[in-house]
Design a protein that fits this description.
Low-confidence stretches: none
Largest sheet: 4 strands, antiparallel
Number of domains: 1
Helix content: 10-25%
Shape: elongated
Strand order of the largest sheet: 2-5-1-6
Strand content: 35-45%
CATH class: Alpha Beta
Length: 118
């Protein structure tokens, strides 16, 4: 099992959510955050200068079975990419164990509904 943590543009959230759903990823956690990136530029909009060094982002946290890692990462990358600086990052880490509190199932079985396995 792997934990995929993705930091994406706030404006790309709906596209990423739809792409994950199409890839069969039906549950993930997310939260809004702000971050400081490497880019230090000012933008002018209607005569007002905005500092863009602090940027709004969404962090996604997804736990998947090993066989679903690649399709999950590809879905995020395709939907979140604009080609500009600040598209985000994806991090993958190992998960040692998982438990479904309601049923007591553990391991991979705790990640999917029986009868709906891919």
């Amino acid at each position: 099992m792997k934990k995929i943590q993705a930091i994406i543009r706030k404006t790309k959230f709906e596209e990423v959510k739809d792409a994950l759903n199409e890839a069969g990823i039906e549950f993930f956690s997310f939260w809004e955050t702000r971050g400081v990136g490497q880019s230090r530029e000012e933008r002018v909009y209607r005569g007002v200068v905005y500092d863009t060094s602090t940027i709004e982002r969404i962090i996604l946290s997804i736990i998947v079975r090993d066989k679903n890692v690649e399709k999950t990462v590809l879905a995020i990358m395709k939907a979140a990419r604009t080609g500009e600086i600040g598209d985000g990052k994806i991090f993958i880490s190992n998960i040692e164990e998982s438990y479904r509190i309601r049923t007591g199932e553990f391991g991979d079985e705790a990640l999917y509904i029986k009868g709906k396995e891919e």
